[in-house]
Amino acid sequence: MILHYFKWAFIVTAVGLVLGAWLGWQSSGTLAGVGAAFFICAVLAVLEISLSFDNAIVNANKLKDMTPVWQHRFLTWGIVIAVFGMRIVFPLLIVVIAAGIGPIEAIKLAATRPEEYARIMNEAHLPIAAFGGTFLMMVGLTYFFDQEKDVHWIQWLESKMARFATIKGIEVAFVLALILGFSRLLPAEETDTFVYASIYGLLTFLCVEVVGGLLDASEETMSAAAKGGLGAFLYLEVLDASFSFDGVIGAFALTQNLFIIAIGLGIGAMYVRSMTVMLVEKGTLAEYRYLEHGAFYAILILSVVMYFQTLIHIPEVITGLGGAALIGISLWSSIRYNKREQAAA
Fold first, then answer.
1. Residue 141 and residue 175 in contact, taking contact as beta carbons nearer than 8 Å
2. Could you tell me which of 209, 215, 245, 238 has the C-alpha nearest to residue 227?
3. How far apart are CA 110 and CA 108, in angstroms?
């Protein structure tokens, strides 16, 4: 039963919404404040789910090759890191670095001067978008630039990308060219920040790939069943962090209360985890052959949107709906393919 997979998500939703309503009462002392906090938590949860549905598919793709032990570790430790680390510690860390203050002072700033906290977060949007956009772009391109990939959704495009994958480093060259191109569109005072943050995003992806490969290779020498262990876990955690950037920054457009943001995005993260578990256990990726393609196209679009957000404001709801639409089309294409195969059998 599908609802079984969302049991904990439902529990966290109930607890989170009650806690959000309580925060609304504490901050305003009115029923209107309670309703506003309750509503914002719900909207943030929906925003997080819409932005991260493709994250669930990519997680499931990686998890299906991991041992049960590491699957369990990612789905337990990973959710703690995702909710506590990315939705609470990450925004605090940005303020600590940007404002040059200590962690305790950052928490006090979030609690007593939320407007100043939000201002610092928004000012940090440029390097965050550049870093996260670059990392996600490498994730998407690496999937398509794969000479062993033999299932293509958009045949004319993906077959060419698979063929060009024999050229070593082609995806890195493509991303570097795009970084240089976008840097020319930015004001001169922002160019260095964008380029440095983008390069760090690229280096992070390459380091995660190298370290992940070394870790998993060393584990395989100890145990043949250790495929997809610590290295894959590390990769998924960094990937989840990159997906979180857009939601965390966008949340400040709805509220400046860090704790309400953490509750709303945390609720959404629980649903993403539940979807990931369902996709792995039900074998949905194998059943719908183009679903994975849609998720990686959504990742590429998200990465480009994050680049454009350094130039203009793009509402997060558009990003979320765009990704959901692509995944929906890929699901529809998969169902059509399955029907054709059944008719031909």
1. yes
2. 215
3. 5
Reading the block at residue 85, the tokens are 């680390």
The angle subtended at Cα 124 by Cα 120 and Cα 126, nearest 5°, is 150
What is the domain extent for residue 291? Answer: 2-344
Residues 157-179 have a mean pLDDT of 90
Cβ pair 265, 46 in contact under 8 A:
no
Tokens of 123: 């000012």
**Cβ-contact 37, 254 below 8 angstroms:** no
CB half-sphere exposure, 327, CA atoms < 13 A:
23
Q: Is 73 helix (H, G, I), strand (E, B) or coil?
A: helix
Global pTM value: 0.76
- pLDDT digit string (tens) for 132-166? 889 889 988 988 998 888 888 988 889 888 888 88
The 8 Å CB, 24+ separation contacts for 102-105 are none
List, for residues 246-258, the tens digit of each pLDDT value. 667 667 666 777 7
Q: Is the pLDDT of residue 222 over 50?
A: no
Give the count of domains, the chain.
1
Q: What average pLDDT does this structure show over 230-236?
A: 74
Alpha helices in the chain, H assignment, sequence order: 7-28, 31-63, 68-80, 90-99, 103-112, 114-123, 125-144, 155-164, 170-183, 188-222, 230-251, 258-282, 284-287, 291-308, 316-344
Contact (Cβ atoms closer than 8 angstroms) between residue 303 and residue 297? no
Residue 104's Cβ-count burial label (10 Å; 0-12, 13-18, 19+) is: exposed
